Amino acid sequence: MSIAMTCGNLNKTYGRTYALRNLDLQLEENVIYGLLGRNGAGKTTLLNLIAGGIFPNGGTIEIRGKKLRKGELPADFCYVREKNKAFGGARVLEVLQFAAKFHPNWDWTFAQGLLQTFRLDPHKKMRQLSRGMESLVGNIIGLASRAPLTIYDEPVLGLDVLMRERFYKALVEDYANYPRTIVLSTHLIDEIATVAEKVLILEAGSLLFHDDLENIHKAAHLLRGHADSVASFTAGKRVLYTEAYGRGTLAAIYEELDEGDMEQARKLDISTERLTLQKFFSYLIEGGS
Ligand SMILES: Nc1ncnc2c1ncn2[C@@H]1O[C@H](COP(=O)(O)OP(=O)(O)OP(=O)(O)O)[C@@H](O)[C@H]1O
Predict the structure, then answer these.
(1) Ligand 1: does its nearest atom lie under 6 Å from the Cβ of 14?
(2) Which chain positions lie within coiled-coil regions (predicted)?
(3) Residue nearest to atom 31 of ligand 1 (CA)
(4) Which whole-number Å values give the CA distances from 116 to 113, 157, 163, in the listed order?
């Protein structure tokens, strides 16, 4: 396993607010990550720190084993920001031409194809674009740059469902041909479940959770049953969240259940269902574990 990026004990404060607190994180090469977290969890702060746009109060960032110095930008890296006001007067094509200069792997044929896929007029000025169209220009840059480390902050903000699907399809197809490390920060959690391979969840400036999406599919379960039965079944298992209803208990657990477990659940009259990524996220955050 090769490491694309490491954050060590990263801290960022704004006045008395801790935006990131003692954050340790490793991103592997050639993996698509979904970066999740509630409003204010620290996602944009983390991405801005990696991109060198702001400086940490403490801690280190290494890109492919090389420590970033203060003010140093990561080499061969693409950061697609949530908002980019700087290009208001420029035309879409000019913005792409500008971006192309910074990315050695830039593919113009791919970029032109994406303009058509996303129905963008390359001669329109950035300030004439809708919110969604603005996101799409950023997404073309993220895709066509083919940077070994590509980071998107809310790439589907303002996009209609059709354009979101087109973006995910283009990303997954291109990634299959040109693997790289991609981080997608988003609030559209179930959509990212069809794209990401690993999930990072930030909460209050710390990394609450980091695992393969496949493991989440296997291990995230919701149980419902009599309170005593659920208590007995979940003993020794990782319980994320519990809630009482009447004489019953609902429990969200993070545990692979084998045939023996399923048999025990049936005997105890406990229903089991797998959690969607979004439900898993909600229970994890609500439970605070
Ligand atoms: N420039 C700033 N000045 C002061 N506080 C800030 C600044 N930027 C972020 N913060 C604070 O840092 C914390 C983390 O914010 P951040 O924008 O990183 O969260 P986020 O996870 O990206 O949120 P969202 O999902 O709402 O975009 C919040 O408490 C926020 O209020």
Answers:
(1) yes
(2) none
(3) 40
(4) 5, 20, 12
